């Protein structure tokens, strides 16, 4: 990929292509740990798999959490049939219409196996079959192996992820799990760029967001921050078929400052400060009102008690598909805004309502 944007695009590709479905984030957590090591003062994880990297501030009494989930949507094998086809159970929100004719990777105890979710040729289907509603449970993974070999290699509980490379398409980056690996990259970049902050900053790589904000909700047991920032992707329906009011955000117009989603109404004093920081520094930004879909912001706002919470979102087309797309300039803007906000968090801003 080209390097005309400020972020580390090679690292982004590596993060996107490292597997980590909800509850099984081991590989991506290890990758993030390796990147944070040397840029934070402390690294630790908890029994939910959340990874915390802390930069000690000059005012240790004032603490800020920057959270970003590391899990991706995927599947778990729930049955291997007598013919060697795999039946799946979803981990996260899938639209079953997009599953046909996709390549996947099955992660087994003895190694990864490539597979496909096939599609019956349309000219062999009846009119009734063509109109039938699809469900995730209808998908079958074909490993191209005989049933006996499949039974030896694959077990119930093995994980399945989409198989896809990270590519540049014009000014966009496309990939299978930009949700939420673009935000993971943003947090890593911030940790790299911030030295000697006033506030103590905890970079939290959270787990199981795609199945109910579970990792973030558990953070409040171990942390009692004064302020929370969440980083995630958001909807950009700026494509044919949507009215202007339905688009939520638009690619190429900058980082999105979240006002609400279905899990949270963010702290409006924090929102105004984020807008002020962006305007003062000429950082492209837009406002996000997301009518459906929740994020870790909601879990963090209430984890262990009430706390001011805000979010910086990265506009993304085609969310929860293998071709998620973000504009490189929006990712740069999100990183710049996060870094600028953290550098100016010194405990003097009043977020009480």
From TrEMBL:
Its cofactor is a divalent metal cation. Gene3D superfamilies: Peptidase M42, domain 2, Zn peptidases. Zn(2+) 2 binds at residues 179, 210, 320. Coiled coil: none annotated. It comes from Natronomonas moolapensis (strain DSM 18674 / CECT 7526 / JCM 14361 / 8.8.11). InterPro entries: Peptidase_M42, Peptidase_M42_aminopept, Peptidase_M42_dom2. The keyword Electron transport does not apply. Zn(2+) 1 binds at residues 69, 179, 232. This is Peptidase M42 family protein. The active site is at 209 (proton acceptor). Binds 2 divalent metal cations per subunit. It comes from the Archaea. Keywords: Aminopeptidase, Hydrolase, Metal-binding, Protease. PANTHER family: AMINOPEPTIDASE (PTHR32481), AMINOPEPTIDASE YHFE-RELATED (PTHR32481:SF7). GO terms for molecular function: aminopeptidase activity; metal ion binding. One of its GO terms (biological process) is proteolysis. Belongs to the peptidase M42 family. Pfam families: Peptidase_M42.
